[in-house]
Amino acid sequence: IYRFFxxxxxxxxxxxxxxxxxxxxxxxxxxxVEQWEQICRTAGILLRAYYDQYxxxxxxxxxxxxxxxxxxxxxxxxxxxxxxLKALREAQATGEVTTKEEALGLARSLLEERGG
Length: 116
Description:
There is one protein chain. The chain is mainly alpha-helical. The protein has 7 helices and no strands. It has helices at about 1-10, 10-25, 35-50, 55-60, 65-75, 80-95, 100-115. α2 (about 10-25) runs antiparallel to α3 and α6 (about 80-95) packs across α7.
């Protein structure tokens, strides 16, 4: 969900609705009904996340800032800070991390993996 709306940005809801309309055209009588139902379920999940859980799933408030990474982990400014922040936001959106401490632990692990 986080990646979908990250990739589609403000057009995300429109993309979901267009996909519904596009796939509705494929339903003929009893043909493709299962596919249509699956697309409706997926669209429902995406739209509920967008409208009901936006701050938790689509665009969560960051648990750590770039400044936190510089100060707490001794990182140097650069693209690696942005990459780690992006990974932290995705982990937060999926529920992998829920606290600042968990985010800091994941940031440390990512930094070690990437040789920083």
